[in-house]
Predict the 3D structure of the following.
Amino acid sequence: MVNMDAEINSAQVNKIEHIGIAVKDLEASNELFEKLLGVPNYKIEDVLSEGVKTSFFKSGPNKIELLEASDKDSPIAKYIEKKGEGIHHIAFEVDDIVEEIARLKNEGFKVLNDTPKKGADNKLVAFIHPKTANGVLVELCQEIKD
Ligand code: ZN
């Protein structure tokens, strides 16, 4: 039997693309996560628009993004001030971020940026407000194809 629902709801989020972790000291955390995962980070990237410095690790199918505030007004600085270090967001890969933003808004989620913006690691990103997602900051990301 054909699953009609699956065909109608073709838009969906794919795999977890990465997990974002807020850290106070990126250099120290790079050492820690290198020990934990057994691999060094493959990239450090400043995301000026967000006031963060990011570091990426890959181990097996898993990807971890460490985020350190690069200025005191960045969302990461505020997050650490309020909640301390820890898991900051979960990022899901999507095929069509514009379509997903529209779908999720239609489902009642509050999208923090209606227009996708350029995030770290060659991605277009949008964030879902944690208040509408059981306290979880959700990032949607779509790879930018050259
Ligand atoms: Zn992220």
User: Anything to note?
Assistant: Residues 18, 20, 65, 89, 91, 139 surround zinc ion (CB under 6 Å). DSSP finds four helices and eight strands in the chain. The mean pLDDT is 92.
